[in-house]
């Protein structure tokens, strides 16, 4: 299932408006999730994106609490508002995720 509708022979980074007027607008969102800093957590989060065909524009991981062994994974992704909501809901169901924020909305 692809959220992007691209005309044949064009790229996503075209100077022309390629959006289908009958579909939702594709938006870029920055999502940050706080997770346990343990083996396999990054693979689970990234597996959510790759398994459903969601694109990752940018990815950053940094430890935020040395004593609590927690890290923040920041992902920039694109999709319709419905796809972004689905990604956020699915991220919240991954076991080692403690909290998630849509930095595009929350600032």
Model description:
Belongs to the acetolactate synthase small subunit family. Residues 30-107 form the ACT domain. Pfam families: ACT_AHAS_ss. This is ACT domain-containing protein. One of its GO terms (cellular component) is cytosol. The structure is a single chain. With 107 residues, the protein is an alpha+beta fold. It has one domain (27-106): ACT domain (Alpha-Beta Plaits). It is 26% helix and 34% strand. It is built from three helices and four strands, in the order βαββαβα. It has helices at 41-52, 81-92, 103-106, and strands at 27-36, 56-65, 70-79, 97-102. It has a four-stranded antiparallel beta sheet.
In what order do the strands lie side by side in the largest sheet? Answer: 2-3-1-4
- The helix content is 25-40%
Q: Which radius of gyration do the C-alpha atoms yield? A: 15 Å
- The number of helices is 3
Q: Indicate the proportion of strand residues.
A: 25-35%
Structural class: alpha+beta
- Gap between N and C termini: 29 Å
Low-confidence stretches: 1-11
What is the fourth-level CATH superfamily?
ACT domain
Instruction: Give the averaged pLDDT, no decimals.
Output: 83
């Amino acid at each position: 299932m692809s959220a992007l509708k691209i005309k044949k022979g064009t790229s996503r980074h075209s100077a022309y408006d390629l959006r289908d007027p009958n579909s939702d607008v594709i938006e870029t969102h920055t999502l940050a999730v706080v997770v346990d800093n343990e083996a396999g957590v990054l693979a689970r989060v990234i597996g959510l994106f790759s398994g459903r065909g969601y694109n990752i524009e940018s990815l950053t991981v940094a430890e935020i609490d040395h004593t609590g062994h927690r890290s923040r994974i920041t992902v920039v992704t694109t999709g319709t508002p419905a796809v972004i909501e689905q990604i956020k809901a699915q991220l919240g169901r991954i076991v080692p995720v403690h909290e998630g924020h849509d930095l595009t909305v929350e600032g």
